[in-house]
Amino acid sequence: MKTSNVLTLISMLLLILSISMILGAIVAPTSDSRLSNTAFLILTVLAMIMLALSSLLSTYAKKKAASTVQRTISVIKCVKCNYQEERDFQVGDYVLKKVGSCTKCAGTLIVASIYLLSPKR
Ligand SMILES: [Zn+2]
Asked: Which of helix, strand or coil describes residue 119?
């Protein structure tokens, strides 16, 4: 979260910088400012590249953050038959907790195990 905020700030600053440089290149009309115009142009291009890079970096950071979100799964099993289901962990779940009755045989459903689902890479 903090990394993407910093990157947004950097890209904003670079945008302002490049706009001011473009304006500077346009506004400076004297003939002996040809060299500084070229310098302005190079700096502008550099700023644009950095801007593109920082936006790419922020996209990458967001993707990475999304892929590291872990899900906790509760495995529900029937004590009488082989019925089994998995659902997202709910606060208060613990192993051997009775969570209802089986839809197939009316036996007791218990939380058989709780595990962390590894994030997809
Ligand atoms: Zn059952």
From this structure: coil
